[in-house]
Amino acid sequence: MKNFRIALWAAAAIAAAVLAGLLYFGAGGSQATVIGGPFRLKDQNGQIVDSATLKGKPYAIFFGFTHCPEICPTTMTDMAALMGKLGDEAKGFRIYFVSVDPERDTPDKLRNYLSSFEPHVVGLTGTPEEIAAVAKEFRVYYRKVPLDGGDYTMDHSAFVYLMGKDGGFRNVIGYQEKPDRALEKLKTLIERG
């Protein structure tokens, strides 16, 4: 278990460095790398969520999976605490939890998992191809990791992406970022869109 946690932390650190490099240096060194893009996935109630319909309100998006032992439940708990601190400011704000494990994360599984966290969270899933496409748009790293006994887990990026009302990327909240700093990022996103 200790080696597994070390591997998860190492993967998160590598993903953070890659994202920081993408944000800082941009594509080809001359333009900012675009993070985010169109997607069309199914929510935990079986309804289609199209990124085009999200325009007009800022939102947050996180990529994880329901069998995640640490990063996902910690992130969802942290986001719930931030939403509580925002109070009425968070009215209408949504956090989208995109599963990187569509083989196991059905809409029912997402609904049951997310019911333990935050009413602002909407779970999204799709086919493996749809998830791969949206992950590529958001520059999200994920991969299946086999475990002993035939089971598997998922390595994945550990960022909450903050998206503006125009659908454009604004900022990230890192894994277990200081709450005051994360709260300020959310307030800025909600106020400025």
Write up what this structure looks like.
This protein has 193 residues and is an alpha+beta fold. The chain has one domain (36-192): Glutaredoxin. The chain has 6 helices and 9 strands, in the order αββαβαβαβαββββα. The chain has helices at 2-25, 51-54, 71-86, 107-114, 128-137, 179-192, and strands spanning 40-43, 48-50, 59-64, 94-99, 121-125, 142-146, 152-156, 160-163, 169-173. The protein has a 7-stranded mixed beta sheet with strand order 2-1-5-4-3-8-9, sandwiched between helices. Strands 6-7 form a two-stranded antiparallel sheet. Helix 3 packs across helix 6 (179-192). The protein is globular and about 50 Å long.
A few lines on this structure:
This protein has 193 residues and is an alpha+beta fold.
CATH names the topology as Glutaredoxin
Question: Beta-sheet strand percentage?
Answer: 15-25%
Count, helices: 6
CATH architecture: 3-Layer(aba) Sandwich
Which structural class do you get from the secondary structure elements?
alpha+beta
Q: Alpha-carbon distance between the termini?
A: 41 Å
Helix and strand layout, with pairings?
Blueprint: H1 2-25, E1 40-43, E2 48-50, H2 51-54, E3 59-64, H3 71-86, E4 94-99, H4 107-114, E5 121-125, H5 128-137, E6 142-146, E7 152-156, E8 160-163, E9 169-173, H6 179-192
Parallel strand pairs: 3-4, 4-5
Antiparallel strand pairs: 1-2, 1-5, 3-8, 6-7, 8-9
Helix pairs in contact: 3-6
